[in-house]
Structures are given as structure tokens and as C-alpha cells.
Amino acid sequence: MTVCVNGVAVDTSVWPDPTLAAIHELLRQQALQEKLLSAADGEDNTLVSDAIEALLRRQVKVPVPRPEECRRYYIARPGRYRHGDQVEARHILLQVTPGVPVGAIRDLAEQLLAELYSQPALFATRARERSNCPSGAQGGTLGLLRKDDCMPEFASQVFGGTDLGVLPELISSRHGFHIVAVDRRIPGELPPFDAVAERVAQDLRNASEQRALEQYVRVLAGRAKIEGADLGAVSNPLVQ
């Protein structure tokens, strides 16, 4: 289905999914309306990105978290701040390559994930057949990993939960889409709050910013005519 925002057709081929493409166009149009961008700048990706960032700085206000909020956040998420966590994991990489539509690769990855989530015993076989990572020859085995061994976008998903087995969601990275199975988790040590207080405050601010961005996008979407994407269910309005 074609994605249109206020009558403007959107090229979704360069985005991981149609929702992000629609959000980008919605914010671009709002930047134009607020005169942070001119019509002549519309083809310059750098100028568009700068204008969207200026728009969000102007419209999305995030309060500074209070110390008691930070402490509660830290207590509720001990796994986030432990040092030395390790996981024993396997993965299947479906690589995004130039000239191949991202949506088609995502669809294939989603189909493969659905199969493996219901039939995890097939993981090693599918890794050998489908993975674009050299680890596929060993059934996708990555061995024991620490956070620092992984790309940030990969580590945040693999180390951010407690699930074992095939993870229920795809992990998107700069290389493509990953299907991951976690076979074992080895917890590290939790530092005292004072040692990570600044990091906790930044994490809490980031979480607050994410909620504020989602709310702002929904407000804009409520005023717009959008076809081919559901912005009522938006969960990631951050536009790169």
C-alpha cells in the first residue's frame, strides 16, 4: 500500500517500516509550516534532518528528573546497570544490501522468526540455510557475549530483558535484521546507585523524551490525513 501524508506520497523503500517513513514526512511538513525549512530545501536530506531536530527541540520539552525519581528507576531496573553480564546466544542475520527493498527483507525475517518462535529446534538448520553472518555455518552460535562485544542496538535488546530461547522480536541493526536465541544468562554485579546516578538520570530523561515525542507525533497525526500507516500505534517517533 502507498503511504501518503496530507496528499504527499512517501518513499518507504529507505525506511525499516512504513510508520517511520510517515513520521518523517509528517515532521518535515510541520517544519515547513513553522518556517524551519523552506520548500527549496526539501531535497536536501541534511537540511531536512536539521530542521526536524530544531522542530523537536522547540516543541518537545522534557523535565529534568528529580533524584527520588532516578533512585526508583534504578531500583526497578537492576539488570540495566549491572556490570559484567554475559549471555550465551545464537543469531540469524538477514542482511540489508544495496538495491534490495528493506521491507521485503523485513517481511522475510518476520516469517522466519514466526517459524522459529514456534519451532526453536529448527534454529541451527535455518541459520545454516539463511544467515548472512559467518556464524551461520556453526548454526548461528555467537558464544558468550558481553555488552561491549556487541553493537549498541543489538546489546540493548539482548541484555535488556530476561527472556531465554528465541526472542519474540526482530533486532534491527546497521547490518540488517537479526533473529536471536538466548541460551543462557550470567548476571554480573550491580554497582551502588551513587556510582551510576548520572547514567540513571540520562536514561530517565531519554525515556521521558521518548514518551513526549510519541505524544507530539500523535497530536500531529490527529490533525493530518495519513494513508497506508497507523500512527496511532507509533512506538518509535525518533527520526534519524
What do you see in this structure?
Helices cover 45% and strands 17% of the residues. The radius of gyration is 20 Å and the shape is flat. Helix 3 packs across helix 8. A hairpin with a 2-residue loop joins strand 6 and strand 7. The chain contains eight helices and eight strands, in the order E-E-H-H-H-H-E-H-H-E-H-E-E-E-H-E. It is an alpha+beta fold. The strands form two sheets. Strands 3, 4, 5, 6 and 7 form a five-stranded antiparallel beta sheet that branches. Strands 2-1-8 form a three-stranded antiparallel beta sheet. It has helices at 18-33, 45-59, 67-76, 78-81, 102-118, 123-130, 152-158, 193-223; strands at 3-5, 8-10, 86-95, 141-146, 165-166, 171-173, 176-186, 226-227. It folds into two domains: 3-64 and 196-233, no CATH class; 84-186, Chitinase A, domain 3.
Strand content: 15-25%
Q: What is the architecture of the largest domain at the second tier of CATH?
A: Roll
Low-confidence stretches: none
Task: Please identify the structural class as seen in this structure.
Answer: alpha+beta
Q: Give the helix level as a range of percent.
A: 40-55%
Q: Please write the CATH class name of the largest domain.
A: Alpha Beta
Count of β-strands: 8
Distance between the termini: 23 Å
Q: How many separate helices?
A: 8
Order of helices and strands: EEHHHHEHHEHEEEHE
Q: Could you give a short account of the major beta sheet? A: 5 strands, antiparallel
- Computed Rg: 20 Å
Key features?
240 residues, alpha+beta, Chitinase A, domain 3, 2 domains, five-stranded antiparallel beta sheet, three-stranded antiparallel beta sheet, 8 helices, 8 strands, 45% helix, 17% strand
